[in-house]
Amino acid sequence: MTAYDDLMAFQRETEALAQVAGRLGWDQETMMPRGAAPQRAEEMAAMESVLHARRIDPRVADWLAKIDDGALDPVGRANLRHIRRDHERASKVPAQLAARIARVTSEAQGIWAEARAADDFSAFAPTLTEVIALKREEGQALATDGDVYDAMLQDYEPGTTGDQIASMFDALRPELSELRAAVRAAEAPPRLQGSFDEAAQMKLTRHLAKTFGYDMSMGRVDKAVHPFSSGSGLDVRITTRTNPADPFNCFYSTIHEVGHAAYEQGIDRAYLLTPLGSGVSMGVHESQSRIYENQIGRSRAFTSWLFGQMKDAFGDFGIADAETFYRVVNRVNDGYIRTEADELQYNLHVMLRFDLERALVAHDLQVSEMEAAWNDRFEADFGYPVDKPSNGVLQDVHWSVGLLGYFPTYSLGNVYAGCLHEAMRAALPDLDASLAQGNTEPATAWLRANVQTHGGLMEPREVIAHATGKPPTESPLLAYLRAKFTEIYGL
Questions:
Q1: Distance from C-alpha of 171 to C-alpha of 397, rounded to nearest angstrom
Q2: C-alpha angle with apex 57: 54 to 58, nearest 5 degrees?
Q3: What is the pLDDT of residues 146-165, one digit of tens each?
Q4: Quick one: which of 279, 330, 295 has its CA closest to 157?
Q5: On the CB side of 28, how many CA atoms lie within 13 Å of its CA?
Q6: Domains within the chain, CATH numbers bracketed
Q7: Bridge partners of 223?
Q8: Helix 247-266 × helix 282-290 angle, to 10°
Q9: Which residues, listed in sequence order, are joined to residue 236 by a DSSP beta bridge?
Q10: Phi and psi angles of residue 134, each rounded to the nearest 5 degrees, phi first
Q11: What are phi and psi of 88, to 5 degrees?
């Protein structure tokens, strides 16, 4: 077992360095002074060079060759599966290309943020063109003779192909579009109106984070332009954002990111700083954030408790009772922003991005055509025009940092969440009584035991099948959405 022990000791150092690199990214999005961006880009490139060198280190191949997989337990075999996959992928990418991608995407974040603030896509287009070109080059190296977009997907959802994602969307789109049309034709619940103090929002949002089990002794909540979760193990940080006119943005962004963070904090501590010590895929990760945010956080039972919390924080805010509040929270609104979209329309936003980025990678769409393509597709899907780039092609950070292949995992996570919610409700028939008291522990404990603790032990779809007893499908999500919005809108 010496070769395995040596490999794992080496891997723990690699995992620790990757956490340091992640902390640099967290700092860049939260606290780094703007003028530090050029230096941070060099720091990120240097860290990526070190990490890439470790991933392709010849000793890794030697250790792997010496290890008898059959002599290992399931944990050992799972560790080797991840290490082999990462080693093979990293070995296909030239070190100079990996470092250049890290440098350019670090710089691109700041350029994107400035272009977004100025509503000027042309200011970002040259940088995006460079990012896309570099990611295509990386994808071609990874794909060898296969599909480039499929190769990109493996970074976020191993074992999934673009065709499988397209089939999932084909199954979702008709019913989502039909239900959306029916809802838009029905009488809508009232809107939340007024101004909500941002300091009070942050106080309540930290309370919500703790309510959903976020361990603040190993985490923190900060503000960022685009909410995110960062880190794993004993240091998992989240961000949110505030808007005086829309406290739900703050509260539900926080609950969403706590879902990500709780996954990382809930992984078996024996896996710390090993390949199993992080979430197995972005689809499974998103299943946790979406079920926390939506099936739990927007449920009638939980919103009845949240209604009281908001009255305590803001006084009379114009909503008469808990039932009306539930309907307000779940109101289907016209809007441009994916992260603010209701459950019914959210996946339509993801479909748009999936189709555009897949066309970009295939050279069927050029960056110069991107803004017009986005605007045309958005109006066709949603029925009204995009008013400005920050509400359209510039709204997401993902392409600036090179996350091509990431977007479809959001919808995959919704599908997984639908499956998990169905199984969780069957296992916890009295869950609503706890949620109505602001007690999420039965739900979060079930998710921790059935999903989170396993980390990377299983493959993504195996995690969901293990938790639910059957392979994941779109049916539970569609049934949940149909029942919920039919009832709210009296269809």
A1: 28
A2: 170
A3: 999 999 999 999 999 999 99
A4: 279
A5: 25
A6: 2-146 (no CATH), 162-489 (1.10.1370.30)
A7: 240
A8: 130
A9: 231
A10: -65, -40
A11: -65, -40
- The interaxial angle of helices 95-118 and 2-30, nearest 10 deg, is 20
Catalytic residues: 257
> Hey, what's the torsion of the CAs at 52, 110, 401, 277, to 10 degrees?
60
Taking residues 442-460, what's their average pLDDT? 98
Nearest to 389 by CA among 119, 115, 127: 119
Can you tell me the distance from the alpha carbon of 289 to that of 176, in angstroms, rounded to the nearest whole number?
21
pLDDT exceeds 70 at position 1: no
What is the DSSP code (8-state) at residue 295?
Answer: I
pTM to 2 decimal places: 0.94
Residue 194, number of CB atoms within 10 A of its CB? 12
Q: Which two tokens stand for residue 28?
A: 């860049």
Backbone angles phi, psi at 315, to 5 degrees: 75, -155
Mention every residue, 6+ apart, whose C-beta is less than 8 A from residue 7. Answer: 60, 63, 64, 67, 83
SS3 assignment, position 158: coil
Strands 221-223 and 235-240: parallel
Structure token digits, residue 101: 């991608």
Specify the amino acid at residue 325: F
Q: In what order do the strands lie in the sheet with 229-232?
A: 221-223, 235-240, 229-232
> For residues 180 and 395, what is the distance between their CA atoms, to the nearest angstrom?
23
Give the lowest-confidence range in 181-190, 217-226, 262-271.
217-226
- The tens digit of pLDDT for each residue in 330-372 reads 999 999 999 889 999 999 999 999 999 999 999 999 999 999 9
Annotated binding site for Zn(2+): 256, 260, 286
Q: In a 10 Å sphere around its CB, with 0-12 CB exposed, 13-18 middle and 19+ buried, how is residue 360 labelled?
A: buried
Long-range contacts of 339-342 (CB under 8 A, 24+ apart): 339/226, 339/227, 339/253, 340/246, 340/249
Find the DSSP H helices in 31-120: 37-55, 58-66, 74-92, 95-118
What residue has token string 């706890």? Answer: 434
Q: How far apart are CA 279 and CA 25, in angstroms?
A: 18
**Whether the Cβ atoms of residue 305 and residue 435 lie closer than 8 Å to each other:** yes
Give the other-Cβ count within 10 Å of 342's Cβ. 18
Spatial CA neighbour of 208 closest among 261, 171, 166, 244: 261
